[in-house]
Amino acid sequence: MDKSINSKKFHLNKTTRSNLITYGMVIAAYIIVQILVNGGHVTSLMKGLLVPLCIYSIMAVSLNLTVGILGELSLGHAGFMCVGAFSSSLFSLLMLETIPNAGIRFFLAILVGAASAAVAGIIVGIPVLRLRGDYLAIVTLAFGEIIKNVVNVIYLGKDSRGLHISLKNATELNLEEGGQIIINGAMGITGTPKNATFTIGVILILITLFIVLNLINSRSGRAIMSVRDNRIAAESIGINITKYKLMAFAISASLAGVAGVLYSHNLSSLTATQKNFGYNQSIMILVFVVLGGIGNIRGSIISAVILTLLPELLRGFNTYRMLIYAIVLIVMMIFNWAPALIDFRKRHSLKRYFSKNTEEKEAS
Amino acid sequence: MMSFISYFINGLSLGSVYAIIALGYTMVYGIAKMLNFAHGDVIMIGGYVVFTVVSTMGLPPLAAILVAVIVCTVLGITIEKVAYRPLRMASPLAVLITAIGVSYLLQNIALLVFGSNPKSFTSVVSVPALKLAGGKLTISGETIVTIVTCIIIMIGLTTFIKKTKAGQAMLAVSEDKGAAQLMGINVDGTIALTFAIGSALAAIAGALLCSAYPTLTPYTGSMPGIKAFVAAVFGGIGSIPGAFLGGLLLGVIENLSKAYISSQLSDAIVFAVLIVVLLVKPTGILGKKINEKV
Amino acid sequence: MKKSMKKLAGLGLTLAMAAALTACGGGDKTTETTAGKAAETAAAGETTAGSTAEGTYKLGAIGPITGSTAIYGQAVKNGAELAVNEINAAGGIGGVQIEYNYQDDEGDTEKAVNAYNTLKDWDMQMLVGTVTSAPCIAVGAESSNDNMFQLTPSGSAVDCAKFDNQFRVCFSDPNQGAASAQYIGEHKLATKIAIIYDSSDVYSSGIHDKFLSEAANQGLEIVADEAFTADNNTNFSVQIQKAQDSGAELVFLPIYYSQASLILAQAKQMGFETQFFGCDGLDGLLTVENFDTTLAEDVMLLTPFAADAQDDLTVKFVTAYQEKYGEIPNQFAADAYDAVYAIKAAAEKGGVTPDMDASTICDILKVSMTEISINGLTGENMKWSADGEPDKAPKAVKIVDGVYTAM
Fold first, then answer.
1. Within an 8 Å CB–CB cutoff, is residue B125 touching chain A?
2. Is there a domain that residue C8 lies in?
């Protein structure tokens, strides 16, 4: 009796401890980087990569919520990033004069991006979450492509008469003299203020972690995971499946939207291409999640960081760069996931000797 | 009306290419339960092989296709053996990501070997164009050959699976790997055979794709690959007639929406139709309904 | 089982963490050196220059050499490299050798900024790039911040020359759109016009939009206006059919040659014979490997560069390029070649020395760029205005018997 309470306490502590390690890791990384930056030890390339690292970390954590916690494969996550990026960029440009304070404007832009991505998440989620497995995956891929495709044909201009929108071309906007085209179809949005900084990025990572980790350990989170583990059983004990699925999906989408806000406020030219918001990007994010461990939030961040840095560090190889990247990816996947290799690592891991004791304890 | 027929026929031609690619997707999915994202890139390699053989060795197109079929078959088996087999028992997601890695690998190898400049593909088809209705309606030779080939392959595959031992083994493996093994079926061999057939089809698809749309770059296969994947899901993934039907429908819908709605939004429309179909029939048009048990 | 899996995951993580920490902590230093070293080796591999006593100029360049726009980036890489080698062989800029370093941006804005930062770490003094428009705009925001001189060979969107440190060699998109409409109107080539363009491409839609508005002034009637996108750029049957049905006398193709070669082939398949007219993007059509040049018969294009022009400069360039890279250069290569020579001219005019930092050089070049006039591959007496636009005249050429013929 006593023992069981003890072990339960121990268990709780373990989760909290693991969460604390995750937060600590991010904060420590932040402090180390800040010290190095202030000491002038960081190259321009690394400095330029700091915000993208935050973006992809948030994306990876957010997708892990869908893939790992909710247990649904999404291949269209970059679509939500796209929604967040464009809506917030649009907001920032329209409010450039109305709200001169960059801090407040950017804060609001983040909210706008998160909210619009969440709305997109709900719109996509309602039909999509009725499907299962690979069918759900293909539909999310389809939605991601639709979002990208539609964004590419939006023309939006502003003049003294107000906003004009067209789905054909810029000439059809019929802008007055001095009117300004804000979204110019495939040319996208240019001139978004560069508000994203590493500090803001890290704060957003921490907020993302806070939301996701708390969700996992909450009543709702357990409900979501019960749906993942056994849908029918969960349903039979009265869990409202649609509600919890939709909730997780919308949160995940809005976090991706936040990453999109960072993305668009880090570059002055925003276009929706296959490379940044297409299925290629969605799959790249999925790679982070799978490599970091499905359901493992800390792993997502680590693998996002490593895999974003990797192609940049390979620049010296010139034209062979992406080839090496592909090979590294395949090898890492086989090494991490192949049952034969997992066995091999198990037999030869040092940790086995250390953990033997605890394992016995837990077993009892 | 003439133009409608013409849009429709061109859509069928596009759809037949999708269908051949989708057949490869669907077979591999049905048996290995994995989405082989590298399939589109095997098509690209097939295209390059045909191109190289025709332009450097001067062999006739049919011989070139044969060479491409052999190269792609070997490639498919190798990929399966090296990259996918070690992960057979792992999470399907891990295999998916590995497939993506293979896809990048093939693209970048092609980029290094053949360069980024597009190659203009000489059509492997020598059938003359068909002129109907007093010349108002032209059906190109490529269209005719693609559609006919697609039908032949479809029938051939169905017969192969129904009538041969190897085909029956495939069916058994796709139903239940464990049970199939207990019945003495060589599961590894059957899966390898599936990859071989899928890749051989990819080579043919590559030759036809590049004949109808005569350009060849290292990225030629990726978009048709994705579209064919959609087509396979559309028709019910794992089902061979489904892939055929899905491919044709996809091509026709794409072309008609380009013609009558918007050429910029045609992809969005195709995907939207897919979503609607899946909502009505969650396992695709010809997909089997799977009952879930606790 | 489940538990041991978890443990394993934990173990994997610790390992990954350790790796990440070493990469991060002691890390930034190591990355710095490896990146620096790598860039140096890359540079050393690409230049024939040995450093001289007076130092060298560090010339950076950015463009895609992987990804779907790699054709253009590869051409720029080669064209600029050829110019650098020539200049170095002839003694360099004012007697100082050039070091050349080309970085891949995959045609992506984010990667372009990474490439730019990599070059900054290499202590780049002047930048040729970027090749494609959207990345060029993104890099422009950074380079204007750093006051780094930037000359893009082919970034043709209006915003590519937005800041005072940005210049370009190619025409801007609106400029080409207007010029095309005027040319068609003035030479009465046709009155009924169909357009097929790539709405997802900045270059193509930029020309298209201006062409539309200018066509109205020229009394041209647009009977079909059909778009395609980068995701759907192999099957043109619908667009061609619509152009055919509309009774167009001329089809305007403000697109790149790789798609144009497909359109021409498919038009032939569909039995559509008409006059095709394009811009500088069509240059390169005849050099597509294995392309049936009879398909391009009678195609007209406005281009500042023609690979088979007979003037000495072009002949010399094309021969050298073919010898080194085994293919016929396109307009991108020519633009890049001119870009390097323009930088040379401007640097010599302004009296730049290699010990100056990038910002000082930029301030000098901003002024001296507007004072030079060079005879390049893409135009005679090219001059630049302070807003970064080149002043040169496009040549109209027609393809006759598989070669360009002046019109």
1. no
2. no
Residues of C with CB under 8 A from a CB of B: 65-68, 70-71, 73-74, 199-200, 226-229, 231-232, 234-235, 237-239, 241-242, 245, 258-259, 261-262, 265-266, 269-271, 288-292, 327
CB contact under 8 A, A317 and C38: yes
Which of B142, B152, B138 minimizes the C-alpha distance to B209? B142
Looking at the structure, tell me whether residues C274 and C246 fall in a common domain: yes
> Which residues of chain A carry a pLDDT beneath 70?
1-12, 349-364
From the CA of C349, how many Å to the nearest CA of chain A?
A: 31
ipTM comes to 0.86
- Domain-embedded: residue C46: no
Instruction: Report the residue from A153, A169, A355 with minimal CB separation from C7.
Output: A355
- The encoded tokens of residue A246 equal 């939709």
Q: Would residue C20 count as lying in a domain?
A: no
Report the SS3 class of residue C406. strand
CATH topology of domain A2-152+188-363: ABC transporter involved in vitamin B12 uptake, BtuC (1.10.3470)
At residue A176, the 3 state secondary structure works out as coil
Residue C69 included in any domain = yes
Global model pTM greater than 0.80: yes
Count of domains observed in chain C: 2
- On whether both C380 and C327 belong to a single domain, the answer is yes
Q: Report cis status (omega within 30 of 0) of the bond before C130.
A: yes
Q: Which amino acid is at C49?
A: A
CA distance B87 to chain A (A): 5
How does pLDDT run across A184-220, given as a tens digit for each residue? 888 888 888 989 999 999 999 999 999 999 999 898 8
Q: Which domain holds residue C210?
A: 174-303
Residue A235 CA, chain-centre distance (Å), reads 29
B166 CB neighbour count, 10 Å cutoff: 16
CATH code of the domain in which C257 resides:
3.40.50.2300
Q: How much is the pLDDT for A349?
A: 62
Q: Which residues contact B40 (CB under 8 A, 6 or more apart)?
A: B21, B103, B221, B222, B223, B224, B225, B226, B228
Q: Where are the domains of chain B?
A: 19-221
pLDDT for C211-260, tens place per residue?
988 998 888 999 999 989 888 888 898 999 899 889 899 999 999 888 89
Q: Are B43 and B205 in contact (CB under 8 A)?
A: yes
Given CB atoms, is C2 within the 8 Å cutoff of chain A? no
Residue C275 and residue C365 in one domain: no
Is A145 an interface residue toward B (CB < 8 Å)? Answer: yes
User: Encoding tokens for residue C320?
Assistant: 């050298």
| A 294-323: CB under 8 A from B | 294, 319-320, 322-323
Nearest CA in chain C to A31: C25
Rounded Cα distance between B257 and C51, Å, is 60
The C-alpha of B48 sits at a distance from chain C's nearest C-alpha, in angstroms, of 12
CB contact under 8 A, C134 and A355: no
Q: For C7-39, how does the pLDDT look when each residue is reduced to its tens digit (9 = 90+)?
A: 444 444 344 433 443 333 333 333 333 333 334
Chain C, nearest residue to B135 by Cα: C271
Residue C291's φ and ψ, nearest 5 degrees, are -75, 135
Would you tell me which residues 256-285 of chain B have a C-beta closer than 8 angstroms to some C-beta of chain A? Answer: 262, 264-265, 267-268, 271-272, 274-275, 278-279, 282-284
Residue A120: partners with Cβ closer than 8 Å, 6 or more residues away: A79, A80, A83, A147, A253, A257
Contacts of A274 in chain C (CB under 8 A): 68, 230-231
**Cα(B79)–Cα(B100) distance, integer angstroms:** 12
Cα–Cα distance, B35 to B26 (Å, whole number): 9
User: Alpha-carbon distance B291 to C321, whole Å?
Assistant: 65
Q: Are residues C344 and C283 in the same domain?
A: no
CA pair distance C63, C366, nearest whole angstrom: 22
